[in-house]
């Protein structure tokens, strides 16, 4: 905690110390905190207060601004200063920097004002939480939805299996539009659900447990969850999907989820497909051991699409959405698929599996084939598909492949608003040739020519997309976590859950 005091007289210092001593004697559950903002745009006071901060400064008869000046007006963007004893309601006030107003950098594909609000709200809440304050009110920063997102995302962390859990602070809106705040909080709650699922250890989130969790989480919201077993997949001739599950033949059986959320009555649903590999060893083409534990999040696509429909239900949006999730482990064993084996997908295409670590595309292929039966408006698949995407784009954005300019443009605009940037990658016949030109079967699951691994993976998936259907493939391998450039996220990120909710919402207006 910080007083943000300089040498400005012993009387002021003594008074602030007395306030801290008085309020530190209160129990943490009774302490209340407030988050307010300042801009770095300079004025006669050396700093510009937000509207809420200006009102609070009047309530405290100028004490807030006085303390900020004592701190040397050094509230930097995304950083928080704590001030104590400014009024009788809030024991501590966190003042956070928002940076400059009206920043416009189109090339960044990011709404800086909204992202600055998320970062600031998160920083203020975290600072108060670290000081033991669990009841926090946050100003709206003229954008209550983003303020709620930053507050709810920033105060959550994965601690499911600690014997002593730290209680999360209760964050609420200080003043402003409560409806918009609750909307942002619902979206953030959905993303936190994806974060929790993705960070759960694989022995505690097998395909069976994931299916049970989906049922437990979604059915109370009026969402239908159908769980299909291995026999159903065999009847559907999903042998591409089942080939990945062979390594766990005597352990964890595969599952296939079909989730239905329909509040619109529309005949043609939006279809979301999520890669659900609950742990990926690489199979016989085994991965290096370093950081293999991160492969517990190889079901990040499944977590994201499940959490998206959870968010839609929380917001009570009038949408018709189908979610398809093939669930399996990818394990090495005596029954596992071997490099060079040939399998047949649901649409009858034969696939030479030259690399068993390119398994995500194999399970998505059959799910994409199945989506044709649903007569979709469009299909989007989300997957931690390729390490090549992480190499190409790092953790800055999601790589997107699409046969529809409209879908991509809508997604890019949604991502700019939510802070989940996307970048379009090529979906050219050049890459399809590398996948489809095989001497003895229809396709290969990897390209033999090297390079462009994300592009050839997308080209592979394209072969299974329903004919004449608008489609996008989101490769989230780079943004799944645990490292993330946004300071309001830690652990697995749950990206791009809020973007998918925003994307769907825009098509309902």
UniProtKB/TrEMBL annotation:
Annotated family: Belongs to the peptidase M17 family.
Q: Name one Pfam family in it.
A: Peptidase_M17
Q: Which UniProt keywords apply?
A: Aminopeptidase, Hydrolase, Protease
Protein name (database record) = Cytosol aminopeptidase
Which GO molecular function terms does the record list? manganese ion binding; metalloaminopeptidase activity
Q: Which GO terms describe its biological process?
A: proteolysis
Any idea of its EC number?
3.4.11.1, 3.4.11.5, 3.4.13.23
Q: What sequence ranges are listed for the domain Cytosol aminopeptidase?
A: 355-362
Matches recorded under InterPro entries = Leucine_aapep/pepB, Macro_dom-like, Peptidase_M17_C, Peptidase_M17_leu_NH2_pept, Peptidase_M17_N
Q: Could you tell me which species this protein originates from?
A: Acanthoscelides obtectus
Q: What does this protein do?
A: Cytosolic metallopeptidase that catalyzes the removal of unsubstituted N-terminal hydrophobic amino acids from various peptides. The presence of Zn(2+) ions is essential for the peptidase activity, and the association with other cofactors can modulate the substrate spectificity of the enzyme. For instance, in the presence of Mn(2+), it displays a specific Cys-Gly hydrolyzing activity of Cys-Gly-S-conjugates. Involved in the metabolism of glutathione and in the degradation of glutathione S-conjugates, which may play a role in the control of the cell redox status.
Which SUPFAM superfamilies did the record assign? Macro domain-like (SSF52949), Zn-dependent exopeptidases (SSF53187)
User: What does UniProt give as GO cellular component?
Assistant: cytoplasm
According to its UniProt record, which reaction does this protein catalyse? S-benzyl-L-cysteinylglycine + H2O = S-benzyl-L-cysteine + glycine; Release of N-terminal proline from a peptide; Release of an N-terminal amino acid, Xaa-|-Yaa-, in which Xaa is preferably Leu, but may be other amino acids including Pro although not Arg or Lys, and Yaa may be Pro. Amino acid amides and methyl esters are also readily hydrolyzed, but rates on arylamides are exceedingly low; an S-substituted L-cysteinylglycine + H2O = an S-substituted L-cysteine + glycine
């Amino acid at each position: 905690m910080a007083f943000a005091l300089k040498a400005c007289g012993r009387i002021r210092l003594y008074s602030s110390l007395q306030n801290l001593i008085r309020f530190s004697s209160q129990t943490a559950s009774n302490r209340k905190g407030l988050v307010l903002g300042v801009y770095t745009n300079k004025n006669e006071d050396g700093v510009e207060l937000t509207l809420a901060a200006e009102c609070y400064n009047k309530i405290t008869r100028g004490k807030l601004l006085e303390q900020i000046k004592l701190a040397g007006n050094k509230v930097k963007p995304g950083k928080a200063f704590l001030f104590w004893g400014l009024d009788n309601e809030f024991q501590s006030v966190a003042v956070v920097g928002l940076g400059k107003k009206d920043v416009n950098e189109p090339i960044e594909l990011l709404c800086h004002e909204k992202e600055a609000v998320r970062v600031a709200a998160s920083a203020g809440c975290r600072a108060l939480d670290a000081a033991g304050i669990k009841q926090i009110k946050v100003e709206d920063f003229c954008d209550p939805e983003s303020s709620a997102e930053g507050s709810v995302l920033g105060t959550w962390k994965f601690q499911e299996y600690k014997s002593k859990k730290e209680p999360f602070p209760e964050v609420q809106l200080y003043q402003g539009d409560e409806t918009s705040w609750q909307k942002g909080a619902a979206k953030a709650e959905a993303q936190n659900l994806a974060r929790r699922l993705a960070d759960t250890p694989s022995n505690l989130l097998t395909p069976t447990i994931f299916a049970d969790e989906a049922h437990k989480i979604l059915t109370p919201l009026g969402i239908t969850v159908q769980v299909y077993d291995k026999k159903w997949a065999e009847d559907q001739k999903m042998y591409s999907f089942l080939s990945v599950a062979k390594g766990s033949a005597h352990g964890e059986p595969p599952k296939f989820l079909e989730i239905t959320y329909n509040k619109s009555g529309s005949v043609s649903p939006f279809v979301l497909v999520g890669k659900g590999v609950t742990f990926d060893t690489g199979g016989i083409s085994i991965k290096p051991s370093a950081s293999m534990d991160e492969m517990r999040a190889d079901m990040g696509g499944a977590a994201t699409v499940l959490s998206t429909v959870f968010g839609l239900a929380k917001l009570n949006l009038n949408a018709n959405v189908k979610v398809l999730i093939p669930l399996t482990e990818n394990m090495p064993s005596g029954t596992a698929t071997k490099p060079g084996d040939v399998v047949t997908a649901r649409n009858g295409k034969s696939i030479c599996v030259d690399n068993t670590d390119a398994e995500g595309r194999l399970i998505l292929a059959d799910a994409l084939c199945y989506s044709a039966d649903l007569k979709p408006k469009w299909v989007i698949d989300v997957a931690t598909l390729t390490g090549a995407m992480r190499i190409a784009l790092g953790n800055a954005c999601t790589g997107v492949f699409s046969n529809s300019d409209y879908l991509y443009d809508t997604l890019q605009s949604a991502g700019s608003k939510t802070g989940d940037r996307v970048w379009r990658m090529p979906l050219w016949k050049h890459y399809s040739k590398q996948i489809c030109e095989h001497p003895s079967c229809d396709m290969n699951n990897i390209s033999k020519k090297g390079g462009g691994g994300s592009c050839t993976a997308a080209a592979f998936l394209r072969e299974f997309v329903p004919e004449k259907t608008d489609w996008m493939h989101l490769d989230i391998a780079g943004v799944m976590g645990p490292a993330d450039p946004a300071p309001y996220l830690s652990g697995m990120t749950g990206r791009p859950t809020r973007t998918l909710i925003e994307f769907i919402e825009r098509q309902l207006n």
